[in-house]
Amino acid sequence: MIDLHYWPTPNGHKITIFLEEAGLEYDIHPVDISAGDQFKPSFLAISPNNRMPAIVDHAPATGGASLSVFESGAILLYLAEKTGRFLPADPQARINVIQWLMWQMGGLGPMAGQNHHFVKYAPEKVPYAIQRYVNETNRLYGVLNKQLGGRDWVVDDYSIADMAIYPWVVPHETQQQNLDDFPNLKRWFSAMQSRPAVVRAYEKGAPWSSRPAVTEEGKSLLFGQTANR
Ligand SMILES: N[C@@H](CCC(=O)N[C@@H](CS)C(=O)NCC(=O)O)C(=O)O
To answer: What is the dihedral of CA 39, 43, 48, 53, to 10 degrees?
Structure first.
């Protein structure tokens, strides 16, 4: 059994997509990031960066004691290795998937995250910041659109790269992106959207998705963090 510490945000959805695709048993432990659950000592013990998602695997493949993993990219790699699924064994194909996973973790996620921040959450509209992150998101969509030319999935077979990227394209309207400008990406997006496991993954988040991921009260807690919190 896997405990998933989760909130229905793009990084959270990545993991429910994997768990649903692989048919693994899991329990969701909600981490309400607007209410400060990410600062509870029990959560920090498994996720010292006070960010969700994180997992605790009570039956690791190593056969040892329970183990925990934080960072969504690391969790996807861990689960892919545990199950032998969605990450090819062939070294060339494997590194191709890993490089697109890293592209999401180091590029699309952080840039689209800043896009959401300045477009949606920042108390002042800062035109330079909005333009910077809307443009960068647009550039990254262009890179992905090119990669998807003549391919069904980001790297040939469906993989953890698709699972990592898709939740960050779901809010494309908030990000001020038009999928009609990216025909390959649009085709892939619609194929992802209609996968039964993806539908189930988003349904899993439904009990909490009706609330805003970031409430008014949560904003200062989320956006004013320093080393001293
Ligand atoms: N690089 C991390 C980012 C995780 C992340 O930013 N999680 C956000 C929600 S999407 C969070 O937990 N925020 C809580 C906070 O800012 O205190 C990952 O991919 O797991």
So the answer is: -100
